[in-house]
Amino acid sequence: METPTTGSDLLIEPDALQVLLSERKNLLLVDLSKPQVYDESHIPGAVHLQPSLLTQGEKPAPGKMPSLAQLSACLSSIGLTEESLVVAYDDEGGGWAGRLIWTLDMIGHQHILYLNGGIHAWVEAGMPIETGIQPATPSHYTATLAEHPPIMEKDEILSRLHQPDFTLWDARSPEEFSGEKCLAKKGGHIPGAINFEWTQGMDKNRSLRIKPLNELRDTLKSLGIRAEDDVLTYCQTHHRSGFTYLLAKILGFSNIKAYPGSWSEWGNDTHTPTEN
């Protein structure tokens, strides 16, 4: 088994991926774009994964992870094996791709790459594309939880609020963070959380690639989101925070976790504390 991909090694650019495609036989390209986008333009050989299959879909916290049995069926349907080197990408700058990468981290599958900028960067680089549906070769994958899964649930968050080495990263919009826009029974944010909206990490002038890492590292540190702390990221349903989770991994955060219940759970619980 190869060394797990970590830090900036998680990022791959279109030209490097094109070379890898000709060299590797155990690559699994997973496209999490909208179905129409995938149908019109995807990397040759990429299989499509509907992002909703990575979520439980039940209120009040639809973003929670599905059961291991459901996850096993989902990942088997796209042909995942223990030897697969997964290359995840989407059409939105990394939200759903990040959610898949978090899911794979939850079950201990460590051989993962993220195509920087996704399909937009691939097309912009003039790389070959494929249309229509690429049928997957199903596998028999059994998902089991990793020994130390990167997750934190509501009760643990409540016990850690205001600890100096614990940082909450809210990936939602400033309007949701302040409570001006309310998508649950309560508006606002988890006490002590720091707001850095997910798309602020993307370069809209470079096909939604991640902004320069040193620039992002400095920006986050100035806000109080430090790589050496225990950092927990969340949004409304752990879709947007899929990207911020991925970004933190790429930046080398030592202990990044996600809260899949996110604000849909926290904001609909009458007993949870909030700030706005």
Write the layout of secondary structure elements.
Blueprint: E1 11-12, H1 14-23, E2 27-31, H2 35-40, E3 47-48, H3 68-77, E4 85-89, H4 95-106, E5 112-115, H5 118-124, H6 154-160, E6 166-170, H7 174-178, E7 194-195, E8 202-203, E9 209-210, H8 213-223, E10 230-234, H9 240-250, E11 255-258, H10 262-266
Helix pairs in contact: 4-9
Short description:
The chain has 276 residues and is an alpha/beta fold. The protein has helices at 14-23, 35-40, 68-77, 95-106, 118-124, 154-160, 174-178, 213-223, 240-250, 262-266, and strands at 11-12, 27-31, 47-48, 85-89, 112-115, 166-170, 194-195, 202-203, 209-210, 230-234, 255-258.
Describe the overall structure.
The protein is an alpha/beta fold. The chain has helices at residues 14-23, 35-40, 68-77, 95-106, 118-124, 154-160, 174-178, 213-223, 240-250, 262-266; strands spanning 11-12, 27-31, 47-48, 85-89, 112-115, 166-170, 194-195, 202-203, 209-210, 230-234, 255-258. The chain has two domains: 7-124, 3-Layer(aba) Sandwich (Oxidized Rhodanese, domain 1); 154-266, Oxidized Rhodanese, domain 1, CATH 3.40.250.10. The chain contains ten helices and eleven strands. The strands form three sheets. It has a five-stranded parallel β-sheet with strand order 1-5-4-2-3. It has a four-stranded parallel β-sheet with strand order 7-6-10-11, with helices on one face. A two-stranded antiparallel ribbon has the order 8-9.
